[in-house]
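Morning!

As promised:
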Amino acid sequence: MCLTCGCGSDEVLIRGRKSLNKPKAPVNFRLHRVEANVAEDTQRIVKLEQDILHKNDRHAQANREMFEQLGILALNLVSSPGSGKTTLLVRTLQALQGRYPLAVIEGDQQTEQDADRIRTTGVPAVQINTGKGCHLDAQMVERALPEMPLPEGGILFIENVGNLVCPAGFDLGEFAKVVVLSVTEGEDKPLKYPDMFRAADLMLLNKCDLLPYLRFDVELAESYARRVNPDIRIIRLSAVSGDGIDAWLSWLEAQQPAGKQTQL
Amino acid sequence: MHEMSLAQNVREIIEQASLDQGFRHVKTVWLEIGRLSCVEQEAMRFCFGAAMQGGVAEGARLEIIDTPGRGLCRKCGHEAEIENVYDACPQCGNYGMQLVAGDAMRVKELEVE
């Protein structure tokens, strides 16, 4: 078990619409012992030079190639728990419905609550429960994809496990990571969790409707994010009041692969 | 972060190598862990022992090659060692050094028998 955050190799459940009527067989990611069936050897040095994330990156590349072939804009939404990702996602889906094919993969350690919230919008959603795992990896996404109609020419939102640390290191094959920071969390999060803000292309500063009630210095938070990642785009918004949502929708539309749009 | 899943990836790489290269037991594992990678070295040490149990590297000694971070200033082009990804350029004070080394996580080599 991981010292830092308790992640481990426990059961991973993938729950999509198609699998709802099937028994929920746990998908076991545990590694099994491989018996080396070779003759005695003498002591020696074996050079490997292999990236530890090599396997994940291979699956991520396969996902990416499929997304590109189907013209799917895949986005990996990352944040701490409680930043408002799911609320933002529901509002975003409501605004985009009828304009693009849409689908959602939800990642949480436990429960199907987020996927259920998404499904109320009519958009297909698959829930991945990582068990004790603290992040999604590319293989989990690969296994979730056959569980849903793929949004060809549209957008696939992958809502990662709420965690500002672990998901930063795992490529899922997405076009971009979008980090959501809410103004109730403190300005210094980009400095405290720099890997996530460095990996993201866009930062959404959520819950801005609460700013009058908080001591949160927006400029300071944004300057910290740019210190870690000078290229990061930042949009201030509120998923509840709707302020700033248009800028986010414009960003999404600008990312759509050319010629694949099904806009009204 | 997720050092346990990374340690399991290390195990998988080692087990595959034991099949490809024909060895039964690993005495030492050298991992290169950049200081600016997302790995906490102490957590990796803890998880390594657990993840190797029952495999060819059970009980193996773990050597971590600790590589410092290096950044390239986007403004003045100066290259320097950095401790954090948000460090300013020591020459011109500009933020946003481009990381050029120190984020690797690699299985370098094994001592086997």
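The beta strands of chain B are 26-34, 61-67, 69-72, 79-82, 98-101, 105-112.

Hope this helps with the figure draft.
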